[in-house]
Amino acid sequence: MIRFVLPFCLLAVCSSAQVRLEWAANVDLELSKAGPLSHYFYNEIHEESTDWKIDVARLQGQFNVIFNRNFSINSHLLVQRKQALKSGLLRNFQDYIVKVGQLHFTYRTDDRKFTFYAGRIQNTFGYWYKHQSYKDRSILNAPLMYSYFINVSSKFGFVQNLGEENELIVDGASEFGFSNLYNRGYRNGFAAFFGKDNGLQFTISAYNGNAGSKKTSTNPYLWNLIAKVTYPINYSWRVGFSALHGTYLKVEIPNHSKYRQSIYSLNVVFDKGYFNVESELFLSTYRSPIFNVENQDFTDGVDGLENVDLLNVSYYSTIKYEPSWLSGAFFSYRFDTLFFGDDPTSSVNKTWDNNVIRHSFGVGYKLLQQLSIRCSFSTQSVANRDWDGQQNTFRTVLSYGL
Distance from the CA of 299 to the CA of which of 30, 214, 228, 370 falls in 20 to 30 A? Predict the structure, then answer.
Protein backbone atom coordinates (compact mmCIF):
# COMPACT_ATOMS: atom_id res chain seq x y z
CA MET A 1 0.00 0.00 0.00
CA ILE A 2 2.82 2.43 0.81
CA ARG A 3 4.07 2.38 -2.79
CA PHE A 4 0.75 3.88 -3.97
CA VAL A 5 0.08 6.25 -1.07
CA LEU A 6 3.57 7.79 -0.90
CA PRO A 7 3.37 10.00 -4.05
CA PHE A 8 0.09 11.52 -2.89
CA CYS A 9 1.52 12.17 0.59
CA LEU A 10 4.52 13.94 -0.91
CA LEU A 11 2.26 16.06 -3.11
CA ALA A 12 0.07 17.03 -0.17
CA VAL A 13 3.02 17.94 2.02
CA CYS A 14 4.64 20.02 -0.67
CA SER A 15 1.44 21.99 -1.36
CA SER A 16 2.47 24.13 1.59
CA ALA A 17 4.66 27.12 0.83
CA GLN A 18 6.81 26.28 3.83
CA VAL A 19 8.47 23.27 2.24
CA ARG A 20 10.06 22.34 -1.07
CA LEU A 21 10.39 19.15 -3.07
CA GLU A 22 13.63 18.04 -4.69
CA TRP A 23 13.51 15.09 -7.03
CA ALA A 24 15.58 13.17 -9.55
CA ALA A 25 14.89 10.17 -11.78
CA ASN A 26 17.11 7.70 -13.58
CA VAL A 27 16.50 4.86 -16.02
CA ASP A 28 19.06 2.13 -16.77
CA LEU A 29 18.90 0.08 -19.98
CA GLU A 30 21.03 -3.07 -19.85
CA LEU A 31 22.46 -5.33 -22.53
CA SER A 32 23.92 -8.57 -21.14
CA LYS A 33 25.42 -11.92 -22.05
CA ALA A 34 26.66 -14.66 -19.71
CA GLY A 35 28.37 -18.05 -19.77
CA PRO A 36 26.29 -21.28 -19.93
CA LEU A 37 26.66 -21.98 -16.18
CA SER A 38 25.65 -18.50 -15.13
CA HIS A 39 23.42 -18.20 -12.07
CA TYR A 40 22.01 -15.16 -10.29
CA PHE A 41 23.33 -16.49 -6.95
CA TYR A 42 26.89 -16.64 -8.31
CA ASN A 43 27.26 -13.80 -10.84
CA GLU A 44 23.97 -11.80 -10.75
CA ILE A 45 22.68 -13.00 -14.14
CA HIS A 46 19.79 -15.44 -14.11
CA GLU A 47 20.37 -18.95 -15.47
CA GLU A 48 17.49 -18.46 -17.94
CA SER A 49 18.96 -15.22 -19.28
CA THR A 50 22.41 -16.22 -20.53
CA ASP A 51 21.75 -15.23 -24.18
CA TRP A 52 21.95 -11.65 -25.40
CA LYS A 53 19.19 -9.65 -23.72
CA ILE A 54 18.31 -5.99 -23.59
CA ASP A 55 16.02 -4.81 -20.85
CA VAL A 56 15.22 -2.08 -18.35
CA ALA A 57 17.51 -2.99 -15.47
CA ARG A 58 16.14 -0.35 -13.11
CA LEU A 59 13.92 2.69 -13.04
CA GLN A 60 14.37 4.81 -9.94
CA GLY A 61 13.14 8.08 -8.51
CA GLN A 62 14.43 10.03 -5.53
CA PHE A 63 12.19 12.47 -3.67
CA ASN A 64 13.30 14.74 -0.83
CA VAL A 65 10.74 16.80 1.05
CA ILE A 66 12.72 19.55 2.79
CA PHE A 67 10.88 21.33 5.60
CA ASN A 68 13.74 23.54 6.71
CA ARG A 69 17.49 23.42 7.28
CA ASN A 70 17.10 20.67 9.92
CA PHE A 71 14.21 18.39 8.89
CA SER A 72 13.49 16.40 5.74
CA ILE A 73 11.82 13.22 4.47
CA ASN A 74 13.79 11.20 1.94
CA SER A 75 12.39 8.49 -0.30
CA HIS A 76 13.75 6.27 -3.04
CA LEU A 77 11.32 4.42 -5.32
CA LEU A 78 12.49 1.55 -7.53
CA VAL A 79 11.02 -0.37 -10.44
CA GLN A 80 13.19 -3.45 -10.96
CA ARG A 81 13.14 -7.04 -12.13
CA LYS A 82 11.98 -9.79 -9.80
CA GLN A 83 14.92 -12.05 -8.88
CA ALA A 84 16.87 -10.64 -11.84
CA LEU A 85 14.51 -12.29 -14.36
CA LYS A 86 14.74 -10.95 -17.89
CA SER A 87 11.91 -11.40 -20.37
CA GLY A 88 13.21 -8.92 -22.91
CA LEU A 89 12.54 -5.19 -23.21
CA LEU A 90 9.45 -4.74 -20.99
CA ARG A 91 7.93 -7.82 -22.60
CA ASN A 92 6.30 -9.14 -19.45
CA PHE A 93 5.36 -6.58 -16.81
CA GLN A 94 4.81 -9.38 -14.27
CA ASP A 95 8.59 -9.74 -14.11
CA TYR A 96 8.86 -6.29 -12.48
CA ILE A 97 8.10 -5.00 -9.02
CA VAL A 98 7.68 -1.54 -7.52
CA LYS A 99 9.62 -1.15 -4.28
CA VAL A 100 10.26 1.55 -1.72
CA GLY A 101 14.03 1.44 -1.42
CA GLN A 102 14.30 4.18 1.17
CA LEU A 103 11.75 6.16 3.15
CA HIS A 104 13.12 7.86 6.21
CA PHE A 105 12.97 10.96 8.33
CA THR A 106 16.19 13.00 8.60
CA TYR A 107 17.26 15.51 11.23
CA ARG A 108 20.48 17.55 10.94
CA THR A 109 21.91 20.10 13.30
CA ASP A 110 22.77 23.55 11.97
CA ASP A 111 26.50 22.86 12.06
CA ARG A 112 25.96 19.52 10.20
CA LYS A 113 28.01 17.65 12.81
CA PHE A 114 25.10 15.40 13.81
CA THR A 115 22.53 13.67 11.58
CA PHE A 116 19.82 11.23 12.62
CA TYR A 117 17.89 8.92 10.27
CA ALA A 118 14.84 6.80 11.16
CA GLY A 119 12.66 4.64 8.90
CA ARG A 120 13.69 2.59 5.90
CA ILE A 121 17.39 3.29 5.52
CA GLN A 122 20.36 1.92 3.64
CA ASN A 123 22.88 -0.31 5.40
CA THR A 124 25.66 1.92 6.72
CA PHE A 125 28.24 -0.91 6.77
CA GLY A 126 31.48 -0.60 4.81
CA TYR A 127 32.12 1.49 1.73
CA TRP A 128 30.55 -0.11 -1.35
CA TYR A 129 26.96 0.87 -0.53
CA LYS A 130 27.83 4.33 -1.85
CA HIS A 131 27.62 2.78 -5.34
CA GLN A 132 23.95 1.79 -5.43
CA SER A 133 23.27 3.43 -8.80
CA TYR A 134 24.84 1.98 -11.92
CA LYS A 135 25.96 5.48 -12.94
CA ASP A 136 28.15 5.54 -9.80
CA ARG A 137 29.91 2.24 -10.59
CA SER A 138 33.05 1.68 -12.61
CA ILE A 139 32.39 -2.11 -12.45
CA LEU A 140 28.71 -3.00 -12.87
CA ASN A 141 28.77 -6.25 -10.84
CA ALA A 142 28.65 -6.02 -7.06
CA PRO A 143 31.73 -7.41 -5.23
CA LEU A 144 31.60 -11.07 -4.14
CA MET A 145 31.05 -10.13 -0.49
CA TYR A 146 27.78 -8.43 -1.46
CA SER A 147 26.48 -10.84 -4.10
CA TYR A 148 27.91 -14.40 -3.95
CA PHE A 149 25.62 -16.83 -2.10
CA ILE A 150 27.20 -19.05 0.56
CA ASN A 151 26.28 -22.33 2.30
CA VAL A 152 24.48 -20.58 5.17
CA SER A 153 20.73 -20.03 5.15
CA SER A 154 18.41 -18.05 7.40
CA LYS A 155 16.07 -21.07 7.27
CA PHE A 156 18.55 -23.91 7.88
CA GLY A 157 21.85 -22.51 9.08
CA PHE A 158 24.92 -24.31 7.69
CA VAL A 159 24.29 -26.91 4.95
CA GLN A 160 27.12 -28.51 3.00
CA ASN A 161 26.87 -27.86 -0.77
CA LEU A 162 23.61 -25.99 -0.29
CA GLY A 163 21.70 -25.54 -3.54
CA GLU A 164 24.08 -27.70 -5.57
CA GLU A 165 24.29 -31.33 -4.46
CA ASN A 166 22.02 -30.75 -1.45
CA GLU A 167 18.85 -29.24 -2.82
CA LEU A 168 16.30 -27.99 -0.29
CA ILE A 169 12.95 -26.79 -1.61
CA VAL A 170 11.30 -23.88 0.19
CA ASP A 171 7.99 -22.49 -1.15
CA GLY A 172 8.53 -24.30 -4.44
CA ALA A 173 12.03 -22.93 -5.04
CA SER A 174 15.53 -24.25 -4.37
CA GLU A 175 17.16 -22.69 -1.29
CA PHE A 176 20.58 -21.15 -1.99
CA GLY A 177 21.31 -19.46 1.32
CA PHE A 178 22.35 -15.80 1.21
CA SER A 179 25.33 -13.56 0.52
CA ASN A 180 27.38 -12.21 3.42
CA LEU A 181 25.93 -8.76 2.73
CA TYR A 182 22.86 -7.96 0.63
CA ASN A 183 23.98 -5.75 -2.26
CA ARG A 184 21.16 -3.21 -1.93
CA GLY A 185 20.97 -3.35 1.83
CA TYR A 186 17.71 -1.48 2.51
CA ARG A 187 16.36 -2.16 6.00
CA ASN A 188 14.01 -0.70 8.62
CA GLY A 189 15.86 0.94 11.49
CA PHE A 190 17.76 4.06 12.48
CA ALA A 191 21.24 5.56 12.13
CA ALA A 192 23.13 8.39 13.79
CA PHE A 193 26.06 10.23 12.21
CA PHE A 194 28.63 12.29 14.13
CA GLY A 195 31.52 14.31 12.71
CA LYS A 196 32.57 16.66 9.94
CA ASP A 197 32.38 16.03 6.21
CA ASN A 198 36.16 16.45 5.92
CA GLY A 199 37.10 15.10 9.35
CA LEU A 200 36.71 12.14 11.66
CA GLN A 201 33.26 10.55 11.30
CA PHE A 202 31.31 8.06 13.43
CA THR A 203 28.13 6.22 12.49
CA ILE A 204 26.07 3.89 14.66
CA SER A 205 22.95 2.15 13.39
CA ALA A 206 20.51 -0.65 14.10
CA TYR A 207 18.14 -2.27 11.65
CA ASN A 208 15.69 -5.12 11.46
CA GLY A 209 16.59 -8.09 9.26
CA ASN A 210 19.39 -10.33 8.11
CA ALA A 211 22.41 -8.47 6.69
CA GLY A 212 22.69 -10.90 3.76
CA SER A 213 19.05 -11.42 2.82
CA LYS A 214 17.06 -9.37 0.32
CA LYS A 215 13.83 -9.94 2.26
CA THR A 216 12.87 -7.34 4.83
CA SER A 217 12.09 -8.84 8.22
CA THR A 218 9.47 -7.70 10.71
CA ASN A 219 10.69 -10.14 13.35
CA PRO A 220 11.36 -8.16 16.56
CA TYR A 221 14.11 -10.64 17.52
CA LEU A 222 16.09 -10.23 14.27
CA TRP A 223 18.35 -7.19 14.60
CA ASN A 224 21.79 -6.10 13.50
CA LEU A 225 23.96 -3.43 15.12
CA ILE A 226 26.62 -1.52 13.15
CA ALA A 227 29.44 0.78 14.20
CA LYS A 228 31.52 2.65 11.61
CA VAL A 229 34.49 5.01 11.77
CA THR A 230 35.91 6.97 8.83
CA TYR A 231 39.02 9.15 8.89
CA PRO A 232 40.57 11.24 6.09
CA ILE A 233 44.35 10.99 6.44
CA ASN A 234 44.82 13.77 3.90
CA TYR A 235 43.25 15.00 0.66
CA SER A 236 44.15 11.77 -1.13
CA TRP A 237 43.74 9.02 1.47
CA ARG A 238 40.70 7.97 3.47
CA VAL A 239 40.36 4.90 5.72
CA GLY A 240 37.34 3.36 7.41
CA PHE A 241 36.47 0.53 9.78
CA SER A 242 33.06 -1.12 10.19
CA ALA A 243 31.72 -3.79 12.54
CA LEU A 244 28.37 -5.58 12.31
CA HIS A 245 26.86 -8.00 14.81
CA GLY A 246 23.43 -9.57 15.02
CA THR A 247 21.08 -12.48 14.42
CA TYR A 248 20.27 -14.06 11.07
CA LEU A 249 18.10 -17.17 11.69
CA LYS A 250 14.33 -17.42 11.71
CA VAL A 251 12.66 -17.81 15.10
CA GLU A 252 11.33 -21.26 14.09
CA ILE A 253 14.83 -22.69 14.44
CA PRO A 254 15.47 -24.13 17.93
CA ASN A 255 17.60 -21.83 20.12
CA HIS A 256 17.74 -19.32 17.26
CA SER A 257 18.80 -16.46 19.53
CA LYS A 258 22.19 -17.99 20.36
CA TYR A 259 23.29 -18.01 16.71
CA ARG A 260 24.98 -14.82 15.58
CA GLN A 261 26.85 -13.33 12.65
CA SER A 262 29.69 -10.82 12.92
CA ILE A 263 31.30 -9.00 9.99
CA TYR A 264 34.27 -6.63 10.11
CA SER A 265 35.69 -4.52 7.30
CA LEU A 266 38.63 -2.23 6.67
CA ASN A 267 38.39 0.06 3.63
CA VAL A 268 40.99 2.33 2.09
CA VAL A 269 40.29 4.91 -0.61
CA PHE A 270 42.97 6.72 -2.63
CA ASP A 271 41.92 9.52 -4.96
CA LYS A 272 44.46 11.74 -6.67
CA GLY A 273 44.71 13.16 -10.13
CA TYR A 274 43.44 10.74 -12.74
CA PHE A 275 43.55 7.70 -10.45
CA ASN A 276 41.09 6.34 -7.90
CA VAL A 277 41.60 3.16 -5.86
CA GLU A 278 38.94 1.63 -3.59
CA SER A 279 39.77 -1.43 -1.49
CA GLU A 280 37.92 -3.38 1.21
CA LEU A 281 39.01 -6.30 3.38
CA PHE A 282 36.34 -8.34 5.20
CA LEU A 283 36.25 -10.93 7.96
CA SER A 284 32.88 -12.66 8.37
CA THR A 285 31.99 -15.18 11.10
CA TYR A 286 28.89 -17.25 11.88
CA ARG A 287 27.80 -19.35 14.83
CA SER A 288 25.43 -21.77 13.11
CA PRO A 289 23.36 -24.91 13.72
CA ILE A 290 23.95 -27.93 11.46
CA PHE A 291 21.11 -29.12 9.25
CA ASN A 292 21.07 -32.81 8.31
CA VAL A 293 19.82 -33.05 4.73
CA GLU A 294 19.36 -36.83 4.85
CA ASN A 295 17.14 -36.73 7.95
CA GLN A 296 15.66 -33.31 7.09
CA ASP A 297 16.21 -31.99 10.62
CA PHE A 298 18.77 -30.24 12.77
CA THR A 299 21.50 -32.59 13.92
CA ASP A 300 21.66 -33.83 17.51
CA GLY A 301 25.40 -33.92 17.16
CA VAL A 302 28.08 -34.85 14.65
CA ASP A 303 30.82 -36.43 16.72
CA GLY A 304 29.43 -34.44 19.62
CA LEU A 305 29.14 -31.27 17.49
CA GLU A 306 25.74 -29.55 17.59
CA ASN A 307 26.76 -26.19 16.16
CA VAL A 308 29.71 -24.81 14.25
CA ASP A 309 31.77 -21.64 14.01
CA LEU A 310 32.31 -20.63 10.39
CA LEU A 311 34.66 -18.02 8.95
CA ASN A 312 35.26 -16.48 5.54
CA VAL A 313 37.53 -13.70 4.30
CA SER A 314 36.92 -11.46 1.31
CA TYR A 315 38.91 -8.74 -0.41
CA TYR A 316 38.43 -6.56 -3.45
CA SER A 317 40.33 -3.66 -4.94
CA THR A 318 39.11 -1.47 -7.79
CA ILE A 319 41.49 0.72 -9.78
CA LYS A 320 39.95 3.45 -11.93
CA TYR A 321 41.80 5.66 -14.42
CA GLU A 322 40.31 8.71 -16.12
CA PRO A 323 42.53 9.68 -19.08
CA SER A 324 43.32 13.35 -19.54
CA TRP A 325 43.12 12.96 -23.31
CA LEU A 326 39.45 11.82 -23.30
CA SER A 327 37.30 13.84 -20.95
CA GLY A 328 34.36 11.89 -19.49
CA ALA A 329 35.91 8.46 -20.06
CA PHE A 330 37.35 5.93 -17.61
CA PHE A 331 38.98 2.49 -17.54
CA SER A 332 38.83 0.22 -14.50
CA TYR A 333 39.90 -3.15 -13.12
CA ARG A 334 38.77 -5.02 -10.00
CA PHE A 335 40.41 -8.00 -8.29
CA ASP A 336 37.88 -9.81 -6.11
CA THR A 337 38.22 -12.82 -3.78
CA LEU A 338 36.15 -14.82 -1.31
CA PHE A 339 37.91 -17.48 0.78
CA PHE A 340 36.36 -19.88 3.30
CA GLY A 341 37.73 -21.48 6.46
CA ASP A 342 37.90 -25.21 7.24
CA ASP A 343 34.68 -27.22 7.40
CA PRO A 344 34.39 -28.30 11.07
CA THR A 345 31.89 -31.05 10.20
CA SER A 346 34.23 -32.82 7.78
CA SER A 347 36.90 -35.36 8.67
CA VAL A 348 38.87 -34.46 5.53
CA ASN A 349 40.73 -31.23 4.99
CA LYS A 350 38.32 -29.04 3.03
CA THR A 351 36.66 -25.63 3.25
CA TRP A 352 32.99 -25.18 4.19
CA ASP A 353 32.34 -23.55 0.82
CA ASN A 354 34.28 -23.19 -2.43
CA ASN A 355 36.81 -20.37 -2.73
CA VAL A 356 36.17 -17.83 -5.50
CA ILE A 357 38.42 -15.48 -7.47
CA ARG A 358 36.98 -12.95 -9.91
CA HIS A 359 38.60 -10.52 -12.37
CA SER A 360 36.52 -7.65 -13.76
CA PHE A 361 37.25 -5.00 -16.36
CA GLY A 362 35.24 -1.86 -17.02
CA VAL A 363 35.08 1.07 -19.40
CA GLY A 364 32.70 4.00 -19.49
CA TYR A 365 32.00 7.31 -21.16
CA LYS A 366 29.76 10.27 -20.36
CA LEU A 367 28.02 11.00 -23.67
CA LEU A 368 26.09 14.00 -22.34
CA GLN A 369 25.64 15.64 -18.94
CA GLN A 370 22.77 13.26 -18.07
CA LEU A 371 23.62 10.34 -20.38
CA SER A 372 26.40 7.81 -19.79
CA ILE A 373 27.33 4.31 -20.93
CA ARG A 374 29.29 1.71 -18.94
CA CYS A 375 30.53 -1.74 -19.93
CA SER A 376 31.91 -4.51 -17.72
CA PHE A 377 33.36 -7.94 -18.36
CA SER A 378 33.95 -10.42 -15.52
CA THR A 379 35.42 -13.87 -15.31
CA GLN A 380 35.59 -16.02 -12.20
CA SER A 381 36.98 -19.36 -11.08
CA VAL A 382 35.48 -21.49 -8.30
CA ALA A 383 37.58 -24.06 -6.42
CA ASN A 384 36.48 -27.72 -6.68
CA ARG A 385 34.21 -26.87 -9.61
CA ASP A 386 34.92 -27.25 -13.32
CA TRP A 387 33.34 -23.87 -14.06
CA ASP A 388 36.28 -21.88 -15.44
CA GLY A 389 35.10 -19.79 -18.37
CA GLN A 390 31.50 -20.94 -17.83
CA GLN A 391 30.33 -18.08 -15.60
CA ASN A 392 31.71 -15.09 -17.48
CA THR A 393 29.47 -12.04 -17.74
CA PHE A 394 29.29 -9.11 -20.11
CA ARG A 395 27.07 -6.17 -19.20
CA THR A 396 26.48 -2.78 -20.79
CA VAL A 397 24.27 -0.20 -19.07
CA LEU A 398 23.04 3.02 -20.65
CA SER A 399 21.94 5.43 -17.92
CA TYR A 400 19.83 8.52 -18.40
CA GLY A 401 18.97 10.86 -15.54
CA LEU A 402 16.57 13.75 -15.06
Answer: 214
